[in-house]
Amino acid sequence: MNTLSLRWPQRNPKVFLILAILVWWGLYETLIPLSEAVVAALPVERDSHLGGALQFFFYDTPKVLLLLTGIVFVMGMVNSYFTPERTRALLVGRREGVANVMAASLGVVTPFCSCSAVPLFIGFLQAGVPLGVTFSFLIAAPMVNEVALTLLFGLFGGTVALLYLSLGLSIAIVAGWVIGRLKMEAHLEDWVRDMPRVSAQFDQGGMSLGERIDAGFRSVREIVGKVWPYILAGIAIGAGIHGYVPEAFMASIMGKDAWWAVPLAVVIGVPMYTNAAGVIPIVQALLAKGAALGTVLAFMMSVIALSLPEMVILRKVLKIRLIATFAGVVATGILIVGYVFNWVL
Rounded distance, CA 252 to CA 299, Å? Predict the structure, then answer.
């Protein structure tokens, strides 16, 4: 790297990582007192609606950004092992079932959102990866990613994060397998089916720890630099919900007793466009106001995995019937997740 700040980690990578962890943890521990101090310095009552909303905003903004920066940096290092070429090579030649599990698992640890995963989806098809396997990856990559898991763990604990991981992976695996069994290759756009097949090369090149740290920095610049406006918007919405929306109202439309709440949450979520980092603060505020966990997770998953922009991009490579099948299978899985969470927790 050209800057002094990034040359030092190259020379002393282990020392840099230890110091970075200590600084990150020290900052994280100051969040609650700092947010309370900021609100106390403002001309508002702490117990008022505005005071509650401001404390939520000043606490959640640095918290989410710290969590996001930390996990994106770590996963940027991990992802240096999983280039698009290597990811594609790992799936070529695997039989369905096993390949669906591998594809969904790779979707969790690789840095591809729903939009950037589409070009890789095409690359999978060119390399001869079965259609259903590519869909397992396409579903898992945005829906069960490291950002969502880390924020869920940080905000709601390990049980919720583990359940989300298990059920999200199940949706990706089963949905991909079902689509594969339906033999819908004819519903790819003609130009996609006519693409020449290419071999998938497995890049064996090694990287030093310093180079992997550089990869972590690049991920932070690219991902956090791209999503921070969504984070601020999501936290602002969440702060408004936290400060002003009555608990009884939220419980009445998104509580466990309303059987129609889960499908309604999915319908509301699909037209929205954000990512896990932007929508999870909204989820946190909804839960604090009495919404059921399964309902808000169904909302979150529909926003991330079934967004309209993704459908528009997919229309360039898939015919309407295959898009409808994909959306129907994934929506069914999300509904199941919503009802299961509401029943279990």
Answer: 16
The C-alpha atoms of residue 276 and residue 293 are separated, in whole angstroms, by 16
Tokens (6 digits) for 157: 């604990």
The model carries a pTM of 0.63
Angle between helices 117-126 and 84-91 (to 10 degrees): 50
Read off the tokens for 231: 């984070």
Where b means 16+ CB within 10 Å and e means fewer, 157-169 reads: eeebbebbbebbb
Distant-in-sequence, close-in-space partners of 25: CB < 8 Å, separation ≥ 6: none
| Gap between the Cα atoms of 92 and 155, Å rounded | 37
Cα–Cα distance between 90 and 103 in angstroms, integer? 9
Q: Are 148 and 107 in contact (CB under 8 A)?
A: no
Task: Give mean pLDDT in consecutive 10-residue pieces for the chain, a chain of 345 residues.
Answer: 52 80 87 85 83 81 78 71 62 74 80 57 74 84 71 76 85 87 84 64 61 78 72 74 64 72 82 66 76 84 73 78 84 86 79
Tokens of 217: 């920095």
Give one word for 44, left, alpha or beta, with left for phi > 0 and alpha for psi -120 to 50: beta
Instruction: Give the pair of three-digit tokens for residue 252.
Output: 């009445």
